[in-house]
């Protein structure tokens, strides 16, 4: 099992306090984030939806305590190598950003590291129609 070295391996070169910080981190390390998406299991469509939400500063992006159990997390070594750990357990109280995608997948980014993470969810049920 691969583990993430949270002391040195960060996708972002700085903490992500605002959505604009995420935008800058992705811009500065575009290649690492682009490589990380498929490595953690995001489809092309999911990755595009996530990147669009960040670029647009979508109001659905939330800052808060992240779930402890993640399906996958990508990190970047100081030399630029992107690697992935699966079935990750975050420390309790890890604060970060979450983006819920239309298929139920949640993309998560810990505030301190900027590591790209995800949890696959079930697709949202169709909205109930209201009859007369």
Quick synopsis:
This protein is an alpha+beta fold. The protein is built from three helices and six strands; from the N terminus they run αααββββββ.
What can you tell me about this protein's structure?
This protein is an alpha+beta fold. The chain has one domain (19-119). It is built from three helices and six strands. The protein has helices at 19-28, 30-40, 44-55, and strands at 62-65, 69-76, 82-89, 95-100, 106-110, 116-119. Strands 1-4-5-6-2-3 form a six-stranded antiparallel sheet. Helix 1 crosses helix 2 (30-40). The N and C termini lie far apart (55 Å). Residues 124-130 have low confidence and may be disordered.
Secondary structure layout plus pairing:
Elements: H1 19-28, H2 30-40, H3 44-55, E1 62-65, E2 69-76, E3 82-89, E4 95-100, E5 106-110, E6 116-119
Antiparallel strand pairs: 1-4, 2-3, 2-6, 4-5, 5-6
List keywords for this structure.
single chain, 132 residues, six-stranded antiparallel beta sheet, 3 helices, alpha+beta, disordered C terminus, 6 strands
Query: What's the main sheet like?
Result: 6 strands, antiparallel
What is the number of beta strands? 6
Terminal Cα span: 55 Å
Summed up, the domain count is 1
Uncertain spans: 124-130
Average pLDDT, rounded to a whole number, is 88
Q: Given the C-alpha coordinates, what overall shape results?
A: globular
């Amino acid at each position: 099992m691969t583990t993430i070295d949270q002391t040195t391996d960060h996708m972002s070169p700085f903490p992500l306090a605002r959505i604009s910080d995420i935008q800058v981190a992705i811009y500065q390390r575009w290649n690492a984030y682009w490589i990380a998406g498929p490595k953690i299991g995001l489809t092309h469509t999911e990755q595009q939806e996530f990147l669009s939400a960040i670029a647009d500063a979508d109001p659905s992006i939330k800052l808060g305590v992240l779930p402890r159990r993640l399906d996958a997390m990508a990190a970047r070594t100081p030399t630029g190598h992107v690697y992935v750990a699966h079935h990750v357990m975050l420390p309790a109280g890890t604060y970060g950003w979450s983006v819920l995608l239309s298929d139920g997948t949640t993309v998560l980014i810990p505030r301190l590291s900027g590591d790209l993470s995800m949890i696959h969810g079930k697709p949202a049920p169709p909205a109930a129609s209201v009859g007369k």
